[in-house]
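Lab meeting, item 3. Inverse folding demo.
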């Protein structure tokens, strides 16, 4: 039964162009070709990256945060109130005005005291800026590493400058060591991002990030198995280069360096629109959709690959919409604000703890993660 499913799944008609057999892609004469088993190592590598990330955040990101003045804010403790706590857990975290009046009467408190209790209680479940800084610092460091590695791997490759070379000899294109390590690093990183979503800062576009990471992993895995390595490396480089500016803008936002954050954000926005909304659809998609037709007739993996790339492009438009909204707000209000952030709320009392005062005006995350792209 399992063997039948395996044989059906790896049908040559589904994965390879007509007349090409799996036997044509077997290693020979010192040439190595891609194999699905090569990707098994990405999962243990992802867990290794999580361990490295833990040490990085503790010994590099945290000291850097303290140097820049990003410290862990200690929230003012709230008095335990079983009535309010029960309402907070079972009913809503944002009581209406009528609820506030009823709860105040029930607890023998003023409406303002009850309102402040709920605000502080909500803030207890929100991550502090230090945690956001640590996450952004790790992503910045690894995206920078991936971009440098990608440029180092691709600068001397002919298909970086001539898109026709992407399909020259396809699919009988041997695997290069640089392509192997580029894919392993990239996929391991995305697996680690997926595994850490449950513990990372939650955003409004959490579902979009899940879809993005799964789509990226599916796309990389599929492009590997069907030997679309050359186009795959181009896709990865185009995505990584924008995320560096995104994460660096976040770092300076959390540190309170508004002017530097704004400058980096505008650089990110420019790079994002150039790479994701110009180069990707008019260069990458042209390469994967149009150029293959000069060599091959459409077949299943060609169609499936481009469907995944089109999904990715839809996500680019989704995040591009948020970037435009932030730009518009900056033009109108002269300040950047992440549409997805859930930062500390402003206080309703005169003397709130510092973590409540640092609301959407200072502790914001300037732009969507993108890791866009991813």
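The presenter then showed the designed sequence:
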């Amino acid at each position: 039964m399992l063997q039948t499913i395996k044989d059906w799944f790896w049908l040559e008609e589904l994965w390879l162009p007509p007349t090409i057999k799996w036997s044509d892609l077997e290693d020979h004469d010192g040439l190595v070709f891609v194999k699905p088993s090569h990707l098994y190592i990405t999962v243990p590598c992802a867990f290794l990256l999580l361990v490295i990330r833990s040490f990085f955040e503790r010994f590099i990101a945290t000291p850097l945060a303290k140097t820049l003045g990003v410290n862990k804010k200690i929230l003012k403790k709230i008095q335990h109130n079983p009535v309010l706590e029960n309402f907070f857990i079972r009913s809503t975290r944002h009581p209406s005005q009528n609820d506030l009046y009823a709860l105040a009467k029930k607890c023998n408190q003023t409406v303002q005291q009850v309102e402040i209790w709920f605000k502080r209680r909500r803030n207890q479940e929100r991550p502090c800026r230090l945690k956001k800084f640590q996450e952004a610092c790790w992503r910045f460091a690894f995206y920078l590493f991936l971009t440098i590695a990608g440029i180092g791997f691709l600068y001397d490759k002919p298909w970086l400058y001539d898109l026709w070379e992407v399909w020259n000899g396809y699919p009988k294109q041997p695997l290069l060591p640089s392509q192997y390590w580029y894919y392993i690093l990239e996929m391991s990183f995305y697996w680690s991002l997926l595994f850490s979503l449950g513990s990372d800062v939650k955003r409004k576009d959490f579902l979009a990030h899940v879809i993005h990471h799964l789509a990226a992993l599916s796309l990389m895995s599929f492009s590997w198995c069907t030997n679309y390595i050359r186009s795959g490396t181009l896709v990865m480089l185009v995505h990584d280069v924008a995320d560096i500016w995104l994460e660096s803008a976040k770092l300076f936002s959390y540190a309170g360096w508004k002017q530097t954050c704004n400058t980096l954000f505008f650089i990110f926005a420019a790079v994002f629109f150039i790479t994701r909304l110009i180069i990707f659809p008019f260069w990458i998609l042209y390469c994967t959709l149009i150029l293959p037709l000069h060599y091959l007739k459409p077949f299943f993996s060609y169609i499936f690959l481009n469907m995944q790339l089109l999904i990715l492009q839809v996500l680019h438009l989704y995040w591009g919409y948020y970037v435009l909204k932030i730009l518009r707000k900056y033009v109108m209000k002269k300040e950047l604000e992440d549409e997805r952030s859930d930062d500390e709320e402003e206080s309703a009392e005169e003397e709130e703890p510092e973590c409540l005062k640092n609301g959407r005006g200072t502790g914001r995350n300037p732009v969507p993660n993108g890791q866009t792209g991813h």
